[in-house]
Design goal:
This protein is mostly beta strands. It has a single domain (19-109), classed as Nucleic acid-binding proteins (OB fold (Dihydrolipoamide Acetyltransferase, E2P), Beta Barrel). It is 8% helix and 35% strand. It contains two helices and nine strands, in the order H-E-E-E-H-E-E-E-E-E-E. The N and C termini lie far apart (42 Å). Mean pLDDT is 92; it is low at 1-5. Pfam families: tRNA_bind. Keywords: RNA-binding, tRNA-binding. This is tRNA-binding protein. GO terms for molecular function: tRNA binding.
């Protein structure tokens, strides 16, 4: 079987540095029944930036109850996206587990200020 190389669009360092990535704390999580793929609605506190909403397909690994109080990492300056009847304002970052539907959330390994900019 021949190996197919994957082509990828390259981003510049400037593209990356325009992306605002911050820490937030999940305040509320509920099942997003109207989403096409299983997802949760999240309300995340970003400190001075306020509470922002996100739709996250993380139901295979987490329950809504265990998400409350969890510190997450999210992109906070992408345009909002309408998903069914919910406006998702930030993109929570995670890593898909190969061969499963699970996504592992990215998080700092020590206490950090909520709303801190990742650099």
């Amino acid at each position: 079987m021949a190996h197919q190389s994957q082509t990828r669009d390259h981003s510049s360092a400037e593209d990356f540095f325009r992306t605002e990535i911050r820490t937030g704390r999940i305040e509320r999580a509920e099942v997003f029944a109207k989403a096409r793929k299983p997802a949760y609605k999240l309300w995340i506190d970003f400190g001075d930036l306020g509470v922002k909403r996100s739709s996250a397909q993380i139901t295979a690994r987490y329950t809504p109850e265990e998400l409350i109080g969890r510190t997450v990492v999210a992109v906070t300056n992408f345009p909002p996206r309408q998903i069914a009847d919910f406006m998702s304002e930030v993109l929570v970052l995670g890593v898909p587990v190969p061969g499963t539907d699970e996504v592992v959330l990215l998080a700092p390994d020590a206490d950090v200020p909520i709303g801190a900019l990742v650099s």
